[in-house]
Amino acid sequence: MTEATPTFEYDVELPPVQVAILVCPGYMPVDIIGIHTVFGTAPNATVHLVWKTLDEVVGFPTFPTRPTTTFADCPADLDVIWTGATAPELFDDEETLDFLADRGSRARWVGGNCGGTLLLGAAGLLRGYRATSNFQQKYLLPHFGATPADGNVVVDRNRITAGPLTGSVEAALYLAQQFYGDEVAREMELQAEYAPQPLFGVGRPDLAGPELTQRALDHAAVQARVYVEAVERAAARLTSVVA
Q1: Any catalytic annotation for residue 74?
Q2: Number of domains in the chain
Q3: Which of 97, 109, 120, 184 has its CA 20 to 30 A from that of 235?
Q4: Of the ranges 3-12, 121-130, 152-161, which one carries the lowest mean pLDDT score?
């Protein structure tokens, strides 16, 4: 965020907040839009879109994005480090995992949603924590020493994890509440007009029922297998590092 970026005004002065959001080839923009919007429009908040270089990356589905800060230039002490889902190749990328591990070791809050939660696990940041992810991949969390938990947003000490889509918004509003208090966070929810009304109301397996859920799992099986293999490799690497 630059000084020229318009922000909302509030009745109280908001404290400075430093937020770093991972963007990379194949990242899912929908998973970061909530936290990017909430803090990108907050006075005194600085949002860093971080990657190895400042070269354009293309998210998925096709979403050209220009990082604002490199790993090397990202502040060492962050209020929030965040990642959404990424391409499976990131689970083998030691530079990215080392960056997340380093900044996450000092950040006030470590957060992610959807497959980004697993990436935090691959960086060694979820061992001994309760966490969630998307329903297709949540069962993989124990590979990284995390305990799968239900809920669109799960908070365990200073770890905050969420499901896809709406999870990004809800987690961001929770963080806003922690930094700014109830009244400011309530107004942020209103400014975003966050009042979801799903068309079919089948956005969780318990709402969709077993038949639709199984069909969705079957249709995602090929993509899911690639992530399973990436998670298994990352877990083996993490185990060897810890050992």
Answers
A1: no
A2: 1
A3: 109
A4: 3-12
